User: What shape does this take?
Amino acid sequence: MNKSSIQLIHIFFRKVNNMISQKAQELSDFFNQHQVSCTIINTNEISSEKPDMVFVLGGDGTFLSASHRYAIEGIPILGIDMGGLGFLTEVSVEALFNAALAVLKGNYIIENRMMVDCFIHHTKKGVEQDIALNDVVIYRGPFAQMIRLSTFIDDEYLATFPADGLIIGTPTGSTAYSLSAGGPVIHPTLDLFIITPICAHTLYARSIIVQPTSSIRLILESTKEGTMVTLDGQRGFALDKGDYIEVRKSQITNRMVKLIPDKPFYSLLRDKLSWGMDIRKRID
Assistant: This one.
């Protein structure tokens, strides 16, 4: 996309409150004043327009919703942090209009983030398919009972994990659920898979890094009511014994807008996770 050719902006949000609604309208007015068309889109609204860029107002969950909706069309997405942690929506709301002006001036780059295709093979009802930016998670559901997941990489048997579940994460998702389950932090521009068991009942269960050309297959070997596979924590599919999922690198990428100068990833880690912070009392 030619940076100077931005003619239509979508402002996307999910949570409806006074602050977000007000900022969305103010941002729309700002773009209109600069002769750029702007449409405010809520999660449930459907538009046939194809914008040149999307501004996402909210937290990381809202960004993931926008990614699922716009990434398939290759539309660049810029996240404005109006939520909680904000790893994906890293532009502060205080810098909203500076960010908008930087976009109009072309002071940004587009960073391609790996996404995954997930195929859910049901023994009784065929195959379902979806995409994810952060992770694909099989989880045991509401009951405190372990499930058993046989894991294959490129058709080679790895192990059967007795666990609460298992996460297949991307580098972008390495700072999400996978991190909470003990997985490593990966620079988000890399292409690879992270396989992380959740509360595995075995000593050998550690995260595994897998090359991006691999196909990962997980087979549900147990029957537990409520077992599901979820994508980005947003969309879920019920699983029965014998069902399996396949996860591969997608040809679709998330085109994430990064302002110039952008905030370095390691600086973001320090800010969001308080890395390097000394919690001890200083004695001078």
User: Anything to note?
Assistant: Residues 228 and 239 are 5 Å apart (CA to CA). Helices lie at 18-33, 60-70, 96-105, 177-180, 265-273. The mean pLDDT is 91.
